[in-house]
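question for whoever is on the cluster today: can someone run the full assembly for these? three chains, 991 residues total. i dont have access anymore since they changed the login thing
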Amino acid sequence: MWALNDQTILKESVDAYNKDHPDQKITLRMFANDDYKQKLRVAFGANQAPDLFFNWGGGALDDYVKAGKVKAVTDAQVDLLRFTPSVLKSATFDGETYGVPANGLAPVVLYYNKKVLKDAGVEPPKTYAGLLAAVKKLKGDGVIPISLAANSKWPTLMYLEYLLDRVGGSDVFDRIAGGDPSGWKDPAVTGAATRLQELAGAGAFGDNASSVNYDQGASTALLYTGKAGMELMGTWEYANLVKAAPDFAKKNLGYVAFPSLSGGKGDPKDIVGNPSNFLSLNAASKNKSAALTYLKDYVMNGDQVDAYLAAGSVPPVNGLDSKLAAVKSDDKSWLAFVYKLVQDSPNFQLSWDQALPSDQADPLLTNVDKSFLRQIKPEEFGANMYKAAQ
Amino acid sequence: MSTATAPRRTLTAVTTLRRTVTGGATFVWTALVVVPVYWLVVTSLRGSTDFTTASPLAPPAHPTLDNYRTVLDGGFTTYLLNSVVVTAAAVAITVVVALMAAFSIVRHTNRWSRLTFRLYLLGLAIPLQAVIIPVYLLIIRMHMYDSLLAIVLPSAAFALPVTVMILVSFLRDVPRSLFEAMVVDGAGDWRMLFSLAAPLARPALMTVAVYDGLQVWNGFLFPLILTQSGDKAVLPLALTLFRGQFGIDVPATMAAVVLSTLPMLVVFVLARRQLVAGLTAGFSK
Amino acid sequence: MATVVRTSRPVVSHRARPGAARGGRRRRFSGLLMAAPALLLFGLFGLVPLVGVLVLSLARWDGLGSVGWAGLANWTGVLGDGATWQALWLTLKVMVVSWLVQTPLALATGVFQAPRGRLRALFAVLWFLPLLLSAVAIGLTWQALLDPSFGIGATPGLHWLAQPLLGSPDLALYTVIFVIAWQFTPFHALLYQAGIRQIPVSLHEAAAIDGAGPVTRFLRITLPQLKYTFVTSSTLMLVGSLTYFDLIFVLSGGTGGPGTATRVLPLAMYITGFQAHDMGRASAIATLLVVFGLALSLLTTRLSGFTRMDSQQEGL
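^ ran it for u. tokens below:
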């Protein structure tokens, strides 16, 4: 089985399985984020792919499904009904489900440094206009308003995802993901790109964001060292912050949903991010029954749900209210925040670079970056993507 | 008298100016080279809090070897061993095979040997990035994907052109009469190769071995594309793995960089002359 | 045939004896046998892929399924794409600017290192340091070092370095070229050092007796004598610049960014092939790279006689 680094809880469940099944052990191999997808592709191409593989669902998984490389799983096999339906959507194609959620819910939220915001006299922004105003004040205060690892490109994409949803609603990207490239020509796409450039132009990300690389942890460090006021990032950042700066996480870390946009068509409760990661089954696997046993009995079982909650992450399963109420750790309010955010959201959009087929991921990220750097005009973003999607 | 001192004074002025410029330039260049290396070492000794708060060039307030422990616990020895195996195997194959080819080219001056020589010349001009896709396909078809052999064979193949060229140019300078004398003695090609050419070419063999070794040791593209598992990773690839793994932890990544450089440092200290000769192998005869 | 004719002639040398004729055939055979392993290895992984890349450039292959025929679609796609031409332009730019930066630096440091002496030897050792690091190690180090928030720019007095050196589309390429120079200048300095040490001391002595100053001697003696070193070093720099892949890959986080500001041809090939999984199109880009490399080496060979088969005494 293959997974990403730092999936400690996943590793524990594999260890538990191996303890119970000493005759048929699962070997777990872990990879760095950047290389993982490419390695997986190559391994499938070389017919050396693992039995179970970690993925993000969406278009990338659909590529494998279309190539006949993935086996669908049924409720009888792995008990699908226990998972949050909006999450399973990312791994469902043509009515069949091709994976089991295997990670905490990962919507993207806006983190902030309470002390920095307080010193500048800024309230955590609830609206886009409020965000712009906060940017102006923080900038005047000499801090970077929002920490952004633009060098990695995908953190910038998160802004466009949210902005498009707020401007045009969730239908616009649904059309695109459904295989209709003309969705890129929707005026809302230009509207979103315009607002991204507006933020960048207002100095929201400081002068050096384009050099900040997420993998080097610099954007995270900017937030907890107080050099920046806010950061838009997935829920995994919470664990990073707790690990790197426990004191900060306890006293000065705040978080809110992405601001709403007045006049926009989107529901302000919509969220974007990674509904979850999935574990999918290789169609050529020789150990199917063992793999299914693992998926059914060891993924998101009672122990694992508790482990995720203890680690400050909300697992994608139904009926968590009582468990959440019983949590006693410092993470309680965070967990409740994430759970409510997801439960209340009418739409949970999978991040675009995962939702689209893999041959569009690079043009997407490149054009997002160019848009952020203001190398292309807002209207060119949609036009370029339309061309790339042809 | 005065006519004699005037030019001498201008001469000293020029000399002083030259010395100042040289000294200044030497200082700047040394700083440019040394400061990053110094920073690398110092950072690898910092704790992660120290890293975000301390002045980057100040010595660490509380030097720690924790980062090195993290790296060593992270499978460093496996990567080191893989690198050593891959480099040794590739160099051995290249040097032996290239010596035979070079000998054959030098001793048999016919149409065929000229053609093969030109093939290697052509090979010098092929950037290995350009053929990585077919090589990748080939390795998959040969069922060698994700094995150390998948790095060894292409690396050896791409080291051949330059190795053959250097050895040919060396063997060409061996006086013809030495070979002729052995022919008169009734020696065949193989005996000439082993008892004459190989011993004579020892310095050249040393330098090409070092040169090829460096290329393979530092090679990144073949391991990147032709292997996938952690237990098959060689050092340069492992560095990028560490980066992904430690993410937030720059000091640990820098410790991995330092550790990956230590073997070369050892070679440098023990055999600087051979290393320098190998680096500039054949290019500065 | 030839042997028959020869044996019928009066014996003039040992070569023409019947026994030696058999030996000649055996010799030819052993010569072939000796050349065979190298040819096999190089043929399989060097020449076959060279043809393969051309064939694949006419194919459709996503790295997952089977290989299909695409005709000229990849080529029209690649040649009609502005990104290809930009990548080609960037490759040329890196090549030429690197050469312009590294040559004077390497010459200067080489000249400084060449005379024997304790102090100069010490500097030579320090300047050698970059050669001990792999391209990946150098890339990771510089990427972290140039981080505007926690890198060198955070040092008091060096805040002017806290700039998006790798992040600004205008600066990134030059930063990359600088790091390339950091990596490779010491190597070329060694070449020049070796070249200088080979200049006969008598030339300098004679000139000194004639009253030539150090500058004159440098311009009149050292530089002309370094002609072949110059050619060798330049050839290696130009041809080698096609292979700066590793460093740029690491410095730009594998994307050739910001935007596409550092996406040179090899990187464009890698991203097309191994990230967007369009192997056919990537092969077309790779073919461009082959043509580029061959043209370059043909040009430098013409200009320098670098690869002459006969006397290797001066150049190689």
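summary bc i know u wont read the tokens: Chain C touches chain B through 97 residues (CB under 8 Å). The first strand of chain C starts at residue 59 and ends at 60.
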